[in-house]
Amino acid sequence: MVRNLNHDTFLVIRYVKRRLTVLVDIDGKHEWRDCIDVPGVRLPRGYYFGTSSVTGDLSDNHDIISLKLYQLTVERTPEEEKRDREVFLPVVDNLKLPGMEAPLEPMSGLALFLIVFFSLVALVFAIVIGIIVYNKWQEQSRKHFY
Predict the structure, then answer these.
(1) Distances from the Cα of 109 to the Cαs of 28, 31, 105, 117, in angstroms?
(2) Are 87 and 42 spatial neighbours (Cβ–Cβ below 8 Å)?
(3) Rg of the chain taking only CA atoms, in angstroms
(4) Coiled coil where (predicted)?
(5) How confident is the chain (146 residues) per 10-residue block, as mean pLDDT?
(6) Strand spans (E) along 66-113
(7) CB of 33 within 8 A of CB of 45?
(8) What's the number of CA atoms in the CB half-sphere (13 Å) around residue 96?
């Protein structure tokens, strides 16, 4: 969407009251369009904001012309202040990421019994087959041709 345009593109990132919004102006008309709006974002305090225009293989050329950072003053209740102070890792409420499935339910007693039973049957079968093969090998090694 932003490749090879003859005008500048702009991006606004806002984080206010646990809501992260990203607005874009890629048409050069100074009209903001919603890109993403995620409620329930909890970010820790004391971190830094960083940007990079490196694309890896230098297949694209992106220039970051300027950054404007503002700290918004938002009135908070003491409960919100305490809750936000306790955040150590970035978290998003009610967000399921790919690869983060719910933990598996424990096996029922019947399933566990069947797994153990058939494992023991397979082990006994393997031992019997091993003994038969060993005995046949012993018989073959005793035969001598004079």
Answers:
(1) 64, 62, 12, 12
(2) yes
(3) 32
(4) none
(5) 78 85 87 89 76 68 78 77 72 70 76 93 96 90 67
(6) 91-92
(7) no
(8) 5
